[in-house]
Amino acid sequence: MGWLVTKYLVTAAVVVLVSEVAKRSDRLGGLIAALPLVTVLALIWLYVERQPQVKIANHAWYTFWYVVPTLPMFLAFPVLLPRLGFWPTLLACALITVACFWLFALLVRRFGIDLL
């Protein structure tokens, strides 16, 4: 149980760090948020918990493919925010991400990559 609490605290600290830095600097906050810190932590947690190398490698592999269709959201958000407000923009971006993911999954399936 202590290990699980430690994982929660360390992972939450990363999110808090990003939001606190972003309050002070848009660029630095964006840079830190763009770093794959949560993925690196997940890889560390999997390794420390003695998961097989193939499982750790698969996590990194699928993370790459799942990140790609989320990128349009980061372009749509600043465009939609002044027009729609925060919550509608967040919802629209979530829908954009789902649509992009679905289309991307159909596209890469043709190359033997199964994301669904």
UniProtKB/TrEMBL annotation:
The chain crosses the membrane at residues 28-48, 60-80, 86-108. Keywords: Membrane, Transmembrane, Transmembrane helix. This is DUF3147 family protein.
